[in-house]
Amino acid sequence: MDHFLRIKPLLLQISSCLCGCLLMLVGRPGFASAQDFDHYEIMRSQGKIPAELLRRSSEKYADQRETLARAQNRSVRRSQSKFLLQSSFLIDDLLLSGKVLFNDPVTAYLTQVKDHLLRDRPELRDEVRIYLVRSSSVNAFATNDGIILFNIGLFARLESEAQLAYILSHELQHYIYRHPINRFVVTDQIVQQGVFDRDDLEATLLARNQYSRELELEADEKGLELFRQSGYALAEIDGIFDILSKAHLPLAQVPWEPEFFARPNLRFPATYRLDTVAALSTREAEDDSESTHPNIASRRQRVREKLGDVLENDTGSRFLVDETNFARLRKTCRYEIAQILLEQRRYEAAIYHAHLLLQEDPGSFFLEKTVAHALYSLARYKNERSFYAVHDDYENVEGEAQRVNFFLEQMKKAALNVLAIDWCWRLHVADPGDRELNAMCRDLLEDFFATHREIAESMSDQAVPEGFFAPWEQGSGERLPDSDPTETESLGERDARDTEGENTPEVDYFQHAFAEFFDNSEFSIAYRGLMNAEPEANNVEYRSPRRRRRQARREALRGQALGLNKVVFVDPMFKRIDERKEITTEYLASERGQEDFLGMIHETAEAAGLDHDILSNRELEVTDADRFNDLVFIERWIAQYMAMWDEELKMVNLYANEAQAIAEKYGSDHFAYTGMLILTRRKKTSTVLGLVLSGVLIVPLPFVLIAVLRPRRSVLYLNLVFDVEQNELALEEGRRMRLAPRKYIIKSNLYSSMHQLKRK
Amino acid sequence: MKIRAFIVIGLFGGLFGEVSAQSIAPGYLGRTTFVEYSLSGITPFGDNDFLSDELTNYRGDKDGFAGSGFYLRARHNVGIYRCLNHRTAIGAQVSAMRMGYRSGFFSFADNFLDTLGQYRVLGAGIRIRSYYFLSRGNIAPVGPYTEFGWTMYAPRLRPRGAADEEPVLRGLYSSVEWITGYQAVAFDRFLLGIAVELQAPFLNRALRPLTVSRVDGADGELTFNAMRRHTALNLRLSISGLLF
After folding, report:
1. Confidence band for A20, pLDDT divided at 50, 70 and 90
2. Burial class (CB in 10 A: 0-12, 13-18, 19+), A505
3. Whether the predicted model's global pTM rises above the 0.80 cut
């Protein structure tokens, strides 16, 4: 599902990266008014879908192969062909993964700056295309066929348009000098050579990295030449290297205190406050011998040497295209990162990031909702004793952000539950129509009664008496023991250890947290309703997660009857993998197979009388940007759902509102993620042994020959049907068959799914 | 026998009931019922007489001892099956087989010159076919399968040239069969199959003892034993039509 993670290693190989710069202080002039971002909406692709996104990867591969020079020797041609095959498909995978945006304001701005840089080279200007990648990592890279992919995480940290222009200049050199393919071919040749000279493997890898670093330095230098002709301020370049050296840190260092969460009826013990924070580190002069990129110090030094005295007389500008737009778009990227951090389940980082942005936009509903999502998730994980699955130890964090992690680590689970209710309910009151907030409040209240009933019943509806918080604020209260994991302890056991003996009802600092809410009739009714409800009988037989999963699988095999009228299939997947080959993914066969697979979905759905729709990039037209966005958001909903799959937590999805809107548009709450994987594996050692044995004993020879000649194939079929309204997995089907992937086998599986979906 | 029949039917019946109550049968594109014609090729185990070619021009009827027609020495089966769920199908099957019978060796003949009479067997039985037992994951009625069956056979032996007369040998025997094979789909309407069949016939004296006839040497038990050897291991080819 996460295409980007899967292809990242190769993309790193075939691409080149750059970036860098000191963070602009939050609150700098040029930001658009806060009003625009109060109800920020996540960026979407717009306009017409670029034709290159809809073109078959196989066609692009064929075109690029035509351009290969004939004079090269066979080994080089082979490496080039290998590169083109993989890059054509993997880059298309990324372009269509939903992580890449097109025709959005940031991409348009990036294109304007690129056009300015290449104003004297019209052919090149038209050749190069730019896309924005929805990734928080500080990176940009160029592909062999002229695409520059620019990460949101990099844009969010830039200080000026000049820095952006230099980064683009650098990436353009990678394209102009064909660095991606050259790097691949040379490293492929080096590795092949190294395979024969195994004794010198380490030297081989070092040689490969050395070549890669040389290309980076070349792009820096050639990029500088282009940049100098552009009219931008040369002095801005140095800042890029600052950005790179601090890329692992948050956007800025703004003091954070537990008062961030404080309210008249809720304040926190002094023991939750971290007195000193860890010093910030930089990655300026790290050992780069094993890296594909030179270290930042040497790049900075090289550029400074090249610039020499020119800097003193430089009259270039920090902005040439649009300064106001730059500030607004950078802020957009920063808002986008808040959402990305939530997607990555980096909840503490999301809280700190929102804190930074709230300095400029106090009261932004979007940012407060980001915090609500983070608190809700952390509270749910903590209640389910899975907190450490999503928590970063404060000792692993640097700077002010460390205080957030420490604070949340110190909080007992009941207290965190109360804090989350407090924050979410306040927002719910501000926007009662927000379904996500409604659901989060309901979940948190139910969880509070289910997990901490006695504490819940003892919560006060009276305002805080004067001096109530004094004992805690003066430092009394016990700091939780160091919760570092022991060597033999699992994360779950660590959670259990942290929460031992918590459920004792005693007067605690959060006793009056809900006092103001009890005046709200909705809260009061909901709370008292839960208080008067009978506690859920806890006589259900305990079953381990593994056992529960096994039972679910068994039930799925028996079949279900969902009685649906319509289902939307989300980007059905068809892949062929042959482990025996050097390039294990059979790209061309997979592409052909996927087209057939879509046809079979239509055929079997019609045979079952099931109304259906397929949201697939393979069936989009140029004017289908809306459908493209629908596909992206549903895939994000599914990715979020599956991220919580391991912990078996049913939580409000980050994209619940978007998914429900899409469900209404398509007339179905049910979205199916269907896929087929044809796997051909290497022969087992036992097969070879059998062959040897049959040399001695003739009788088993025919059977062994069949085993040797017949490919070791498996067909893996997966069909997950999600109900976005109920936020649940309605159908889970998974089969592994040791069969040849005949059409009737595929159709048989598909029909089985359709039958279960349709049958009442 | 009543007890035995009760156990067999009860066991099968109970199994079907349980499975059908729990599951949904998707079939192939919605077709869960199919009619199957299959041919179980008789293998040359037993007497030396059977080490000849599978195909013979001997038809074994009263006029056909010297016939030149093409005759496949095999058992013909026609069955109807219904898929109960993803994994299981049940069915009923009737079978018919005929061949020459030679007295001197108490066995069946390839060579019409030695033929004494015509041996005919009619059978009917029930089957349960699992598409899960050997290969998990495929969906009935497609892919590898394993089948268990119980068939009641009624053999008749009529002397040469006296087909209208009373059989000289008759009786009943039942057989337990185990089949494993593979079914593929053709044109979304037909199933083509290939399988190996093992049969274990046992004599049901309690049902109806064999009648030893006036034909010299036509000993019922020896004939049965020859038959048992003869049908122990078969190759089975099938074609089915997916009905609904």
Report:
1. very low
2. middle
3. yes
